[in-house]
Specification:
- The chain has 128 residues and is mainly α.
- 71% of the residues lie in helices and 7% in strands.
- Helix 4 runs antiparallel to helix 5.
- The longest helix is centred in the C-terminal third of the chain and has 47 residues.
Length: 128
């Protein structure tokens, strides 16, 4: 395993910008070693970046990701982190299900509105 990764290597590996990695650093999610102006990321930082990006793909906010990461570093540790993660996943799943219901309702309303417009055009003798 390598001792350090450069910011350029990680931006290529994860297909993110240097600005993204600097943002994660500013947010305290990763803490690369500084050698002058050069940032050197440890394997643990690389792992955290992978987890942060996974959390973002799942729809978690930075604050939620930070909370999960922090829990791993402090008591109750990994068990607490895993339980929190399960809770956050359930919340995210519920939110997505509600959005799906809202979308289905909106689509049904649009279908009804379109049907009403077509019916009125027929009444007016206009072909569609």
């Amino acid at each position: 395993m390598r001792e350090y990764y450069t910011i350029t290597e990680l931006t290529r590996e994860f297909d993110v910008s240097t600005r993204t990695l600097r943002f994660y650093e500013d947010e305290g999610l990763v803490a690369p070693v500084r050698r002058g102006r050069t940032r050197l990321f440890r394997p643990s930082d690389r792992h955290l970046i992978r987890q942060i990006l996974r959390g973002k793909r799942l729809g978690f906010a930075i604050a939620e990701i930070r909370e999960i990461i922090q829990m791993y570093k402090e008591p109750p540790g990994e068990v607490g982190q895993l339980k929190l993660m399960i809770k956050r996943i359930e919340e995210k799943r519920d939110s997505l299900r509600q959005k799906r219901r809202d979308l289905e309702e909106t689509l049904a309303e649009l279908d009804q509105a379109e049907e009403s417009c077509v019916e009125r055009l027929v009444e007016l003798g206009v072909s569609t």
